[in-house]
Amino acid sequence: MKKIVVTGATGLLGRTLMQVLAHSNTVIGTGFSRAKPPIEQLDLNQETAIVDFLDKHQPDVLIHAAAERKPDICENDHQATIALNVKAAEFLANQCKARKIHFIFVSTDYVFDGTSAPYLENACHSPVNFYGQSKAQAEQTILSNSALHTIIRVPVLYGEVEYLAESAVTVIAQQILEQPNSKHDDWAIRFPTHVEDIALTLQALIQQPESNIGGIFHVSDNQSMTKYGMAKHIANVVGKDPADLVSVPEPTQNATRPYNCALKDSRLAALDIQFTRDFANAIKQVLAPHLEQ
Ligand SMILES: NC(=O)c1ccc[n+]([C@@H]2O[C@H](COP(=O)([O-])OP(=O)(O)OC[C@H]3O[C@@H](n4cnc5c(N)ncnc54)[C@H](OP(=O)(O)O)[C@@H]3O)[C@@H](O)[C@H]2O)c1
């Protein structure tokens, strides 16, 4: 049993990390604006607060899932994005190295430009937006800080949401419910991945010997689809006709998005750590609580 701190425990991924890891570990979660007991409030922009928190809890593992992950928000506020996505991550990595805490950083497929998929773990960074740049910068510092730090890159995530607009996948259901003939991006290739599969992967990774954990891991489901493709599955779940949806065969969002960042998970495959699920079934379960009247 390990003592694990999860930052971003009030967020989409963090909430599920807390649930899954608590089965066989002592887990302490931190959040910010949504933190309420037992989740501790910790502003990751306050270095003295981080030091006090680590002095108090002395974890074996720290999973850093907190970030600003909306590309359009990052594009519009570079200073706040650097503070949270880069500076706070660097400070945590330094603290973890000094305290011999296994540091795990959650990064993104957006560190790539999407023109030469699939990407191996050692592929060069080529971000096309500020969010991707901030994560790439954090990765570089973390890797140079310690060979024992772990970086996991993940694609677009879905899972239990507090409200439909919380994730880039479930918001599609809201769009379809509001407008059954809504338009959906049919250009960018995505690999929607369930947060529980990320959590199960991390549970398996933290059990590995020290010689296996350092460096970059890719964690991704393997079903490729555009947002229009996801919308067709989702329309069926929410009781609308997929034939009414409108396909948009070019990019549709403000901050530039990469075309196809397929992540090849060669290191996890070598360790025989792979969790996947069928999108059509999984999205049905995720949406069910939001469709009951
Ligand atoms: N969601 C995706 O599709 C996706 C895709 C690729 C990579 N990722 C990466 O996966 C990780 C988890 O993403 P997510 O979707 O779970 O994010 P999320 O739902 O947006 O949650 C972000 C978390 O960061 C916390 N936070 C924000 N500002 C903070 C601050 N100043 N101090 C402390 N905590 C702060 C939030 O706390 P409060 O809400 O309590 O303020 C929240 O717990 C992130 O590193 C993200 O970049 C996500």
Automatic annotation (TrEMBL):
Functional note: Catalyzes the reduction of dTDP-6-deoxy-L-lyxo-4-hexulose to yield dTDP-L-rhamnose.
Native organism taxonomy: Bacteria, Pseudomonadati, Pseudomonadota, Gammaproteobacteria, Alteromonadales
A Pfam family reported for this protein in Swiss-Prot or TrEMBL: RmlD_sub_bind
Major enzyme class: oxidoreductase
The protein's name in its UniProt record: dTDP-4-dehydrorhamnose reductase
Pathway of action: Carbohydrate biosynthesis; dTDP-L-rhamnose biosynthesis
PANTHER family: DTDP-4-DEHYDRORHAMNOSE REDUCTASE, METHIONINE ADENOSYLTRANSFERASE 2 SUBUNIT BETA
CDD domains in the record: dTDP_HR_like_SDR_e (cd05254)
Any single Gene Ontology cellular-component annotation: methionine adenosyltransferase complex
Gene Ontology biological process terms from the UniProt entry: dTDP-rhamnose biosynthetic process; O antigen biosynthetic process; S-adenosylmethionine biosynthetic process
RmlD-like substrate binding domain sequence ranges: 3-288
Cofactor(s) required, per the database record: Mg(2+)
Manner of cofactor binding, per the entry note: Binds 1 Mg(2+) ion per monomer.
GO molecular function: dTDP-4-dehydrorhamnose reductase activity; methionine adenosyltransferase regulator activity
Alphabetic keyword roster: NADP, Oxidoreductase
Family: Belongs to the dTDP-4-dehydrorhamnose reductase family.
SUPFAM superfamilies in alphabetical order: NAD(P)-binding Rossmann-fold domains (SSF51735)
Catalytic activity field: dTDP-beta-L-rhamnose + NADP(+) = dTDP-4-dehydro-beta-L-rhamnose + NADPH + H(+)
Enzyme Commission code: 1.1.1.133
